[in-house]
Design goal:
0% of the residues lie in helices and 29% in strands. The protein has a domain of 51 residues. By secondary structure, it is mostly beta strands. Strand 2 and strand 3 form a beta hairpin. The protein has a 3-stranded antiparallel β-sheet, with no helix packed on it. The protein binds zinc ion. Zinc ion binds next to loops.
Length: 73
């Protein structure tokens, strides 16, 4: 299986969804409620690169693929 790797240090990237509340960073704009940030985070703590993909309104609005189809940890 192909896994996405960090372009900086070549470690595996992990999908992360965390609440930032920064809906003003999205195209939908301030007050839109898109406060959950979806990102790919490098698992190497010395590198700690973080690649934000976008935001969702509720954590339950996002569902990952089945394990065998996933390209990130
Ligand atoms: Zn890295």
């Amino acid at each position: 299986m192909q896994m996405l790797k960090c372009p900086v240090c070549n470690s595996i990237l992990k999908l992360n969804i965390s609440y930032s509340g920064c809906d003003w960073d999205t195209k939908a704009g301030k007050g839109s409620g898109y406060g959950w940030e979806v990102s790919l985070d490098c698992i190497n703590s010395k590198c700690a690169s973080l690649f934000t993909i976008g935001h969702v309104r509720n954590i339950n609005d996002f569902v990952g693929l089945k394990d065998e189809l996933k390209s990130v940890q």
